[in-house]
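Known limitations

Files may contain more than one protein. Parsers should not assume a single record per file. Below, a two-record file is shown to illustrate correct handling: read the sequence, read the C-alpha cell line, then continue until end of file.
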Amino acid sequence: MKIAFVIPYFGKFPNYFELWEHSAAYNKDIDFLIFTDTPRNKHNIYKNIHYIYIDFDEIKRRIQEIVGFKPMLTSPYKIVDYKPLYGCIFKDFLSDYSHWGYCDSDVIFGDLKSFLTEDKLNNYDRIYQHGHMCIYKNSDEINVRWKTKHNLVSYNYIEVFKVGGVKMFDERGGMWDIWKENKWSQYLNEMEFADILPIKAEFTTSWNKDPMIFHYDRGHLYEYADGTNKREFAYLHLQKRRMTVENIDKDNFYIKPDVFTKTVDKTIECTDSLGVSYAAQCKLKRILGSLSKGDEMVFHIRVAFRRLGMYIKGENWHIKYKLY
C-alpha cells in the first residue's frame, strides 16, 4: 500500500509551513506531491515531499479536459471544489500509488500510518471526508464517482463547476451526500483528528468544548493535559488560524492557541483578533465575494429548477433538504 497526498498550492505558504514539512517528512511511507508555481526545491530536504512546478492555466486546462466544458475557475481558492477530481487531474502522477488523497497546508501531521492502517486501506473506498484530509482508493471507477448526477440532495458537478463561488463540493456541498446516498464504503471517525473550531480563540473541536493544548514529539501528535501526553491524533487542523512561531525545536514543541512554543508553562493570551474575528472575516469575505458574482443567481435558479423537476416526477419526496 502506498499513499500520495496531492496539494495544488498557489501563493504564499503559511509562516509555519516548515513545521508542516517537518511533520509530513516523519511519515516516510507517504508521498506529498505539491503542485505549485512557487516551488521550494532549494529549501526542500525531505525525500517524500515533491515540489512539481505547474501554473494555474495548466490546472484549468487539465480540468477542462476532464469535465468536458470550460469551468469557472477564476481564482486558486476555487480549486477546493475540484479536490475530488485529483485522481483524474493528476492521474499521470499517481500510477504508482494504491491510494491518493488531499490535505491542507494549515495542518500539523502526527503518525498517520497508525491511523491509516492496512486494514482500513484494504476495506474502505474512502477514509475520512473533510477537505483538510481525505483518502481514496486509486481505481478508475472510484476516481470518477464525483460525476454522479442522480443524487437528490447536493449540487452536482456541472452546477458547481459553472459557478465562480466555492460550493464545498469536496464536502457537504457534494461528495458527502453522493457517497452517503450510494452507500459506498467509507471510514469516518471525527475523533481521530483535531479539527479546531474557528469561532473561538481557544482550541476546541466539535466533540470537545474544553480548551486544548497539543504536543508534537518526533512524528507523534498528542493532546497535552495535566503534565502528560493523553490522546494521540492523526493530525491537527488549524483552520487558517494565524500563528506565531517561536524559536523551537522542530522535533519537539507545544501548540497553544495562536503560537508554536517550546514550553507549555508559558502563558499565552488568546485574542479575538487572532482567533474569532479573523475566521469571521474570512467567511464574510467569501460570502460577499460570492454574492457579488452574477453567476450566483444563475446557479441557485439552476439548482431550484432541477429539484422542482424531480419533485414533479416524485423522485425527491423523501429528501429533507438542508441549507448549506
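...continuing to the second record:
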Amino acid sequence: MNGPWWYTWGGLNERLFLAVNHAGHGWLWDHLALWGTAAGDHKLYPFYAAAALALALKRPNVLATQAVLVLLCGYLIDWAIVSGIKPWLDFPRPPRVLGVAAVHILGPAEYAHSFPSGHAAFAFVLMASLLPGAHWMLKALLVVFALWVGWSRMAVGAHFPADVLGGALIGLFSAWLAAQGLRLLGYARAKR
C-alpha cells in the first residue's frame, strides 16, 4: 500500500483491514455487516434527526432537545468536511489496492474516495451530538451503533481502518464544533 505515513501506518492499516475483513463469514456475520453499513448511511439523516427530535420532545428525560440541535448543526459541518476531503484526496479503496480476490466484498465493490469514511463520520457525529444529552441506556446504544457502523465498513470491504478512524474523528470534531458554536450563540449544551 502506497500513501502518506499517517495513512499507511507502516503497513498496519492494510494488515488490520485484512484481519477485520476476514475475521468471520456466514449469514449472520455478513448480514450484521450489511445492516451496519445500511444503518450508517448519511441519507438516513432526516430519519435519525426526526426520530431524535420526536424522542426529545416526547421524553426529555431520555434525550435533551439541545442535543438534537447539536446534531442538526453538527451534521452540516460533518457533511461539508467529508464531501470536501474525499474527492481532494481520492485515496483508493481496498479492492483497488489489494485486488478484488483478496477482499471479502459484501454489496457493490467500491474503488475510489476511500478517506474518510462518510458512514463512520455520520455515525460518530450522531453519537457525539446526542451523547451529552442522553439517558445512560441511550448513550450505550449510541456508542454501540457508532462502533457497529465503523466495523461494518471494514467488514463489507469498503474501507481501511484509517478511513474509519478519520471519519470517526471528523464526526467527533463536527459535533464538538457545533456544540461550541451553539454555546457561543447562547444555547447551553445538555449534560447528564
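Parsers that stop after the first record will miss the second one. For reference, the second record is described as follows. The radius of gyration is 17 Å.
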